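Q: Second attempt. The first request was missing the SMILES, so the protein and zinc ion are both included now.
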Amino acid sequence: MFILGLKNSPMIWFSWSVSEAGYEARDGTLLARSPPKVRAVVCLKDDFAEKICLDFIALDGSSESITNFANQYGLLRNHSLQSEPLVLWVEEIKAMRDVLLASNEGRFAEALEKYTIGYARQRGAKAGFAPNVTNSEFEFRCVALDLASWFWLQIGQNLRSRQVGRCRECGSLFFKGGGKGTRRTQSRKTKQFCTPGCKVLYNNRISVGKKKHLDQTHHAIV
Ligand SMILES: [Zn+2]
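A: Got both inputs this time. The predicted holo structure:
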């Protein structure tokens, strides 16, 4: 019998390419101020990759938030290009958020359908065996062809094994469970807040309400 476990998850690689002079938004277009340079070709650790995905989904769609994000991670599509429409960002953010929302609300078939449509729109990935530099063994790599494809691959990997939660304080979407050791206990399946900070805010609000009035406490919980 052949069993696919987490250890056999595809190793999602990407060649991170960013303009050193940064990006600017002009007339609905995101422009690189200098030709993008390859920063690193890496397979990011799961929790790090997850954070970048969730940060992307949380962008408010303003040209400022998109420009700031691009300054760190580069353009969404083919990174040899030096510009792309901002509307592409707005559409991909919405499409990915819709997938996680559907999953969070228990509409799993719809989440998978939306995911399939979203990934079909991407350039995708190239897969094959490559030598591992540290132990000179062969390893299987799935190399995303652009940043948008990388996002969709990472989200697919997370959706496969994890539930999507929604923060009770700020409404942000996050993945429940996953991680190892201490991280696992911080990120258990019953998790209700995106960060410890939101949990503190929520609980503080509740206790302030309790001190004030019973009725107000009720409102704080609702
Ligand atoms: Zn939150």
